Amino acid sequence: MTAAAVAARVTDPEMPMLTLADLGILRAVDESADGVVVTITPTYSGCPAMQTIRDDLTAALREAGYPRVEVRTVLTPAWTTDWISAAGRDKLAAAGISPPGAAPRRAAGPVPLTLAPSRRAVSCPQCGHPDTEEIAAFSATACRSLRRCPVCREPFEHVKEI
Amino acid sequence: MSFDAAYEALTDHDDDARWAYGTGFADPLAGVDTTVPADVDRADLSAYCLALGDDALIMSHRLQQWVTRAPELEDELALANIALDLLGQARLLLSRAAEVEDAGRDEDVLAYQRDAAEFRNVRLAERTDADFAHLVARLLVFATWRLALLDRLTASGDPVLAAIGAKGVKEVTYHRDYAAQWVVRLGDGTPLSHERMQAAVDAVTPLIGELFRPHPTEVRLAAVAVAVDPSALRPEFDAVWAQVLKAATLRPAADVPDEADSGVSASVAQDGADRGGSSGGPAGAGRTDFAPDGGGRDGVHTAALADILAELQGVARSLPGSEW
């Protein structure tokens, strides 16, 4: 298996239904005579999973016969939920986590303030009802918000758009 | 997963991770191109990264102290996540500061082995919160100011600062919305919540002026388009602050002297009142004798910072280099 294929199969520790490739944080895998250089980017600045991801990548590649592995970080361009693959979105939905919509586009000028809870149309991953309400913009991880369906009453997590 | 397997997973050290304070964390800038632009003074750039990093580190710590004390579980999660974002920004900035300084220090040394007078955070970040209204007022001020700052930092001539700015903008946008929504909910709520929210707005107002006063380091770096001149952020801040206060049916505080200029600190009285004892430490000595123009960016802090550092640095200082 190529180093790129091995790296692409490593999963995210906090959302293990997604591979790093699905999540869009695996930016490059370069194989050379000197070893493998894997380039990743953090989702959020404080993502505590980065250390585990580095270790998991190194371990998976070593096991697949690549003893020399270097994991590099890139900060730019900053990760966006738009990089979550179509397959990744399907896997999130299958796990009961609502996938993100399109990331907000910035117009010129200051970042707009949102004073009301977001009214973004997010459908319920349980019953499919098209209009759900936000309970909290933050959840068990920085990348997810907490929502509730007014029809089936189920709370669920939504990967929030950044 | 059985308990035994869970325990195995925690103790099996076939990788390099250390889920404890210090040592073993990979440099958050590992693999990032960290070249310093040719026309930039390294000492200035290091000091600037340190200041912005200290703002995030100290504010993060204050937010972490609300975990287990927030009014609802959702707010606990929100505050913990906001604190985590800021801690991540702090790690990037302190690492950048250490690397540019090139004196053998790293993010851990900077976070754990400096005394209060060596910290460069604005005093707003260290202030204790008398109640949840004080917290959301302070967070709104902090996030509104920092968002405007990070947004302009994306154009910095230092590519690392520009990248940190671009990531941070996305995060702090959520922080500001969170705080603003709470200020509106409490301000435009019951008579009691309104009164307490108004008191919080009044209390935080003397800390606002310091945020926009350019430090000589910032002026020099702004001249070469590396730093942001904080005085340029004031119009955007004022517009957002006014917008939120209006929506919250709150009035701006009456003209109050800027705390760092007045030589008297409201926070000193407050901190002393709710702590009961003297913390000692470098900032403790400076309780009432601030230099007229001294602020957090000059290392002139309130006693509240010494309290934070006692907690933040306690383990690292009593067990240097320890790991588990």
Explain how this protein is built:
- The complex is a heterodimer of chains A (162) and B (324).
- By secondary structure, chain A is of the alpha/beta class.
- Chain A has two domains: 3-73, GMP Synthetase, Chain A, domain 3 (2-Layer Sandwich), CATH 3.30.300; 84-159, no CATH class.
- Chain A contains four helices and seven strands; from the N terminus they run ααββαβαββββ.
- The radius of gyration of chain A is 18 Å and the shape is elongated.
- Chain B has 324 residues and is mainly α.
- Chain B has one domain: Ferritin, core subunit, four-helix bundle (Ferritin).
- Chain B contains 14 helices and no strands.
- Chain B has helices spanning 3-11, 42-64, 73-101, 107-112, 123-126, 132-153, 159-187, 191-204, 216-223, 234-247, 259-262, 266-275, 281-284, 303-318.
- The model of chain B is unreliable at 10-23 and 263-292 (pLDDT under 50).
- The chains are: A alpha/beta (162), B mainly alpha (324).
- At the A-B interface, helix 3 and strand 3 of A face helix 3, helix 6, helix 7 and helix 10 of B.
What can be said about this structure in brief?
With 162 residues, chain A is an alpha/beta fold. In chain A, 21% of the residues lie in helices and 21% in strands. The two termini of chain B are 24 Å apart.
Main β-sheet of chain A: number of strands, strand sense, barrel status? 4 strands, mixed
CATH topology (fold) name of chain B: Ferritin
Mean pLDDT across the residues of chain B is: 85
What structural category characterises the helix and strand content of chain A?
A: alpha/beta
Average pLDDT figure of chain A:
92
**CATH C-level label of chain B:** Mainly Alpha
Spell the H/E element sequence of chain A.
HHEEHEHEEEE
Principal-axes shape call of chain B: globular
Number of domains of chain A: 2
Q: Give the strand line-up of the largest sheet of chain A.
A: 4-7-6-5
> Percent of residues of chain A in beta strands?
15-25%
**Helicity range of the residues of chain A?**
10-25%
Task: Please name the CATH architecture of chain B.
Answer: Up-down Bundle
Low-confidence stretches of chain A: none
Which geometry of chain A do the CA atoms define?
elongated
Write down the Rg of chain A: 18 Å
Largest sheet of chain B: none
